[in-house]
Amino acid sequence: MLDSLRQPLETGETVIARANSHVSFPARFQLIAAMNPCKCGMAGTPGHTCKRGDRCADDYQARISGPFLDRIDLRVDVPAVSAAEMIAPVEAESSSTVAARVEKARERQRLRYLEAGEPGIFTNAAASSTLIEKMVNPDRESQALLLQAAERFRLSARAYHRVLKVARTLADLAGVEKVARPHIAEALSYRINFALA
């Protein structure tokens, strides 16, 4: 069932083909998903050791296909929260502050693509691979990091371009025009941390 989402995640449309007809429906959406680290959900919890060891998590996570994972831009490991962490007061940005920063980043993206002659593209996620390469234009240091990561973690062409899109978005959220090595490094960390877990 999850693998059936691959095409709409990639193209933003669902195509239904039958013997006498071929119909395409718009299907652009944002997928937010969560899964346990292993079957019992306790892998990585301090003080817990699974009877099956690392194999438990490996087998469980292998149920998600590689091509499906390749289409997920951000993979964030959320460790278990202790009681002390839940009780302790936490200083964090308010939702309204984050929303304002996101709104500015989206407007920056919309204007960038409008100036590039692409009025139908409003976000980095919707940019083609050729277009995002122009919009990121990584410097030599960033290119070296991308090449090293691509070779070490065997990034596909799709994964490479998704890293560029996330890096461009991180720079937009930071309010800077030039995508630099820290943006590339952070974007890579969202893609490869799942593989390293």
Description:
- The protein has 197 residues and is mainly alpha-helical.
- It has two domains: 71 residues, no CATH class; 100 residues, no CATH class.
- Helix content is 50%, strand content 5%.
- It is built from nine helices and two strands.
- It has a two-stranded antiparallel sheet with strand order 1-2.
- α7 packs parallel to α9 and α8 packs across α9.
- It is globular.
- The two termini are 25 Å apart.
- The mean pLDDT is 88.
- Strand order within the widest beta sheet: 1-2
Structural class, by secondary structure, is: mainly alpha
Estimated share of beta-strand residues: 5-15%
- Which sheet architecture does the biggest sheet show? 2 strands, antiparallel
Stretches where pLDDT is under 50 for at least 5 consecutive residues are none
Measure the end-to-end span. 25 Å
Beta strand count: 2
Q: What's the order of the H and E elements?
A: HEEHHHHHHHH
